[in-house]
Amino acid sequence: MVKTVSNNSDINDISQLHDFFEARALKAAYDLDSWKNFQGNILKYFEKLFGEYMDHIEKDWNITLPGEKPPNMIFKKCVHAAKTEARKLGESVIVALELYLQGSVYQAQERLFSTLNNNKTLNRVKGELEMEDEPYRLFRIRVSDNTSEIQTRKDLFHVPFSLRNKIGTNRYSIPGYPCLYFSSSIYACWEEMGRPPFHKIVLARIEPQMTNGEQQLLYLQQAPLQWYEYLEKKIQSKKELSPSAFDGFTTFLIHWPLQLACAIPSRNSGALFHDEYIIPQMLMQWARSCQQKIHGVCFRTTHVSQLPAKRVSPMLLSNYAFPARSTVHDYCSELTDQFWLTEPQSFELSLACKRRGEDNSKPHPPVSGFDQTRNTPFSLSTLSQGYYSYYEHSNFFKVEWNSSFDEAKSL
Questions:
Q1: Cα(338)–Cα(159) distance, rounded to whole angstroms?
Q2: In this structure, what are the phi and psi dihedrals at residue 245, rounded to the nearest 5 degrees?
Q3: Residues in Cβ contact with 313 at an 8 Å cutoff, skipping those fewer than 6 apart
Q4: In 3-state terms, the chain is what percent helix, strand and coil (to 5)?
Q5: Which of 78, 263, 276, 361 is least enclosed, having the fewest CB within 10 Å?
Q6: Residue 109 predicted with pLDDT over 70
């Protein structure tokens, strides 16, 4: 619902902005029903969405963002600046999908890799894993019928190379090759694992170590709805966008075809081959082989629909994937140096314990990030849209809070 604003021009700008982000090509990612109901393969699906996206940004959008001089020009410039590079990325994805599905895997990689190597704007979405200033709380879970078998930190790290025959395919990793996945909340982990029963969950908190900027990620986690809400708020408050915000919006538009190709939900969870994983797996292989020292990808979970920030805070929905790089030992030495874990703990056992922070008679130790996460909006996507709560009130947060008092160590 659009809030009351000061004049009709603001109302018109927000209405136009809403129409811009209502495009099917901007809503289809993270939408399982759209893909499930499509009659055709992943190539035809992406071709259709990409064609709609390019037609959409070719329109003459009459939206004035705060601080524009003259009016209406900055938004148009952002969209115009994105067209050429967005088209290159989308067309490259189409060719790569077509070649891969024809069995020409090497040629498919060559085409996509060449486009990525020549795309200078990827540097804008590359950065370190924030560890000091941002409230990152990172978690990893395993699901087991016998949780007592998971007793050491190694049991919650990536699958060892000696057991690589047990590694299936995942969105950003190929069969047989270890990759360390984790999430920004236990809730995101739970969604990624298909909402398993809580009594089957064992978890650990992951604590990144300083790497002096050597470990770089591609950040592909921003959903279109986040940009809509951000720009809407700017229009309503009449606060000017910074130059970095303009660059960020342009970068988002450029990379959307690539992010869309990586964010299509799997419509057959039990399949041995997932065509939705073709492009994200190629992207990860490019990251491992390129000279830009990209060591992982941050991406938004595909198991939760786009929801307003008042329902689910975006900070709860990020996933991370770091492929093993060193193959000398059972566990990648680079990853074991970079990521320390707490001891494995049962979800239900942790929940049954009294939180140590609840005893006001004792001094409360500083817990980075957790206090800032207490009041983040949260409601399960399957619940009534009229039901809202805060993450602090969920059992997910209670278990996370308990884990904040446990010491993280290297394997």
A1: 17
A2: -70, -40
A3: 376, 377, 378, 391
A4: 45, 15, 40
A5: 361
A6: yes
31, 305 contact by CB (below 8 A): yes
Average pLDDT over residues 108-136: 81
* Rounded Cα–Cα distance for residues 155 and 84 (Å): 47
- Using pLDDT thresholds of 50, 70 and 90, give the confidence band for residue 239: confident
Identify the CA nearest to 31 among candidates 44, 20, 45, 52.
45
User: Hey, is 227 helix, strand or coil?
Assistant: helix
The DSSP code for 202 is E
CA 186 and chain centroid, separation: 14
Strands of 67-210, DSSP E: 126-128, 138-143, 179-183, 201-208
Tell which phi-psi region holds residue 366, choosing left (phi > 0), alpha (psi between -120 and 50) or beta.
beta
> What percentage of the chain reaches a pLDDT higher than 70?
87
- Number of alpha carbons in the 13 Å side-chain half-sphere of residue 145: 0
What sections of 122-242 are H helices per DSSP?
Answer: 186-192, 224-237
**Which phi-psi region, left, alpha or beta, contains residue 72 (left: φ > 0; alpha: ψ -120 to 50)?**
left
Residues listed for the chain: 411
Tell me, what DSSP letter sits at residue 43? H
Kindly tell me the burial class for residue 206, based on how many C-beta atoms sit within 10 Å of its own C-beta (0-12, 13-18, 19 or more): buried
Q: What is the pTM of this model?
A: 0.90
Instruction: Report pLDDT digits (tens) over 373-407.
Output: 777 888 776 555 556 678 888 899 999 988 888 88
What's the pLDDT score for residue 264?
93
Question: 296 near 322, Cβ under 8 Å?
Answer: yes
Please give the distance of CA 129 from its chain centroid, rounded to a whole number. 13
What is the model's pLDDT at position 214? 64
Of the chain, the percentage scoring pLDDT greater than 90 comes to: 46
Mean pLDDT of the chain: 85
Residues whose CB is less than 8 angstroms from the CB of residue 73 and which lie 6 or more positions away in sequence, other chains included: none
CA gap 257, 349 in Å, rounded: 43
DSSP summary character for residue 363: P
Q: How many CA atoms lie within 13 A of 374 on its CB side?
A: 6
Nearest to 395 by CA among 345, 348, 362: 348
